[in-house]
Amino acid sequence: MDFRRLLLALSLSFIFIFVWQTFFMPAPPIEQSPEQGGEKIDLNNNTATEVIKKKNNTVETLELGSSLNITTQLVSIDLNNGGTSINNLNIIEQDNGELKHVGAWDKKNGEYNSSVPVQLLDSQTCNPCLVENGQIILFDSDQVVYNYNPSEKTHVIQSSTNQGIQKTTIINDNSYVIDHLFTGLNSSNTYNLIWNEGLEPTEMNIQDDLTMSSLFAEKDKSYHSETISDTNELFNYTNVGWAGLKTKYFIKAITNQNYKANKNNSVQFKSTELQVNEDSQFIYTDINFDYGIGNETIHTYSYIGPIDTDHLQGGRTEHLVQLFGFGWFIIGYLGQLILWVLTSLYTVIPNYGVICILFAFIIRIFTGPLTKQSFLSNQKMQKVQPKMKKIQEKYKDDQAKLSQATMELYKKEGVNPLGGCLPILVQMPLLIALFQVFRKTIEFRGAEFLPFWITDLSQPDIILQFEFLKHIPGISFFFGHGIALLPIIMGVVMFLSMQMTATTSPDPSAKFAMYFMNAFFILLFNTFPSGLNLYYTIYNILNFIQQRQLKQLQT
Amino acid sequence: MNFILIKIIKIYQLTFGVLFRGNCRFHPTCSEYMLQSIKKYGAMNGVLKGFKRITKCHPYSNTYGIDEV
């Protein structure tokens, strides 16, 4: 064995991991001590400092009165502060009579419950609160007027009047968009609209959820985004459209209806990750829209719900769609296409696991003939092997002359050498796009293949957990802390099909490198979504079967 | 520019290239081809020519064998 080449292959693998991690994997989670979490809110202009304080997960707040519950087809909302501020928000959207999005953390016990509705807001204080000259406006909870408008399918909640100010909240029956309209403002006063506390974590793998969370602000038609950190850093943007925060699958976005007319509007963010218990954290972000003076009404609307293009596309949230691409250029478009194919198939076959298998068959239809071609040329090549040996003997010391002579031999014997590298290269963007689609799309969140195996296509199919691996930083980062079954099946199948074809390879170290890469792939794929692994495993099994059949036909 | 590109290709040849050795449809290899065409035609055209060569590397291509710059 050539050890120099082994070293090269090793270092190459590390470069590969590095590149992969940099471009396709989330950043490592930021460790945080419990003491740092939950600090006093410190807005720039000290508006809400006295009234809202969050410490050690207990909210000391103003008396917001009793709450009003509104249930639509999509959400169950509790409103307090006289029907003006959203206090709880659960998603109850249904799909074929079952809850579409489930799973929430029980913060008291630090346990994840995967059968309850997703809870995006839990006992939050201000969603939103209007701040006038630094004072939060309170509304009387006994004078809330609630109306349901059957023709427009809207729930209209009208608050009492305080200092001439009244808030109207409009909740749509089949949309996640909620309108917030404040009227009767005094144009000589300054106003702020604050949205406090952020979003609840919704995923079992909380670090994954956190690392894919970010803040965003739309400015000049494009989005600026900031990673969520525990630094209490304050971000400030002026004249923004949409602003808010997103977790892995859910989003809280707020826009200002007439921001283009009001150049004074600015938004401030502050983010902290708040420790809930040993393992779980809470995405804690205050958003403060500063309207300054000169306002008689403030009309804004929010989208608090799933990152689901079915709901976001069209209508008033259209602009948000561009926040959730699958990557740049080809990968992005390919991802869109794959998602479209998969979701279209889902309307016929309601199991995404079966669809992954079917998708492998579809891709195989295109790549199957390529495999056949390269296999046949491979066979021809083996026939001229004796002549090859002679040439190899002759030009033992001259690599360039050797390959030249080899090529001449091939031409003479009519051998079309191997398939070429393009089929392999084409497979790469497809895999990356699939990786992105399975990781980022809410459709695959908790999508089950079989009840006892692969219960979540967006996560690896871990069959063995090793808790101790959690404490080894490098390994837990690259390899996770469990062993998934699919990558192993895939690796074995790849190994077998390689063994079948690799006999023509003249270079033993290249052969070794192939095996090495194979083992490396098993490790790499261990943390990948099982949907991707299921696809690629089936793809490789089909490849193997085809090669074996071709070989049997030959003999 | 040329210098950086050539260095990148050289690094590729010493790492990933090892894995593909002996599997080439063409002579010189695609990386060698790109390297030579960068030297001959400059960065822009050289890289373009190199990529054009890679797109010819599939089983249905009617060219193979010796294909010098």
Primary descriptors:
heterodimer, A: 555 residues, alpha+beta, 9-stranded antiparallel beta sheet, 6-stranded antiparallel beta sheet, 12 helices, 35% helix, B: 69 residues, mainly alpha, two-stranded parallel ribbon, 2 strands, 62% helix, globular
Describe the structure.
The complex is a heterodimer of chains A (555) and B (69). By secondary structure, chain A is α+β, with helices and mostly antiparallel strands. Chain A contains twelve helices and 27 strands. Chain A has helices at residues 3-24, 206-211, 309-312, 329-346, 352-383, 385-394, 399-413, 422-440, 473-479, 485-501, 508-525, 530-554, and strands at residues 53-55, 58-60, 68-71, 75-80, 85-91, 94-95, 98-99, 102-106, 111-117, 119-121, 129-132, 135-136, 145-149, 154-158, 166-172, 177-183, 191-195, 214-219, 222-227, 234-238, 242-246, 250-256, 266-275, 281-292, 298-306, 462-465, 482-484. In chain A, the strands form seven sheets. In chain A, strands 13-14-15-16-25-22-21-18-19 form a nine-stranded antiparallel beta sheet, with no helix packed on it. Chain A has a six-stranded antiparallel beta sheet with strand order 12-11-17-24-23-20. A four-stranded antiparallel beta sheet of chain A has the order 3-4-5-10, with no helix packed on it. Chain A is elongated. The two termini of chain A are 33 Å apart. Chain B is mainly alpha-helical and 69 residues long. Chain B has four helices and two strands; from the N terminus they run H-H-E-H-H-E. A two-stranded parallel ribbon of chain B has the order 1-2. The chains are: A alpha+beta (555), B mainly alpha (69). The A-B interface holds A 5, 8-9, 11-12, 15, 370, 373-374, 377, 400, 403-404, 406-408, 410-411, 416-423, 425, 504-507, 509-510, 513-514, 517 and B 14-16, 18-28, 30, 54-61, 64-66.
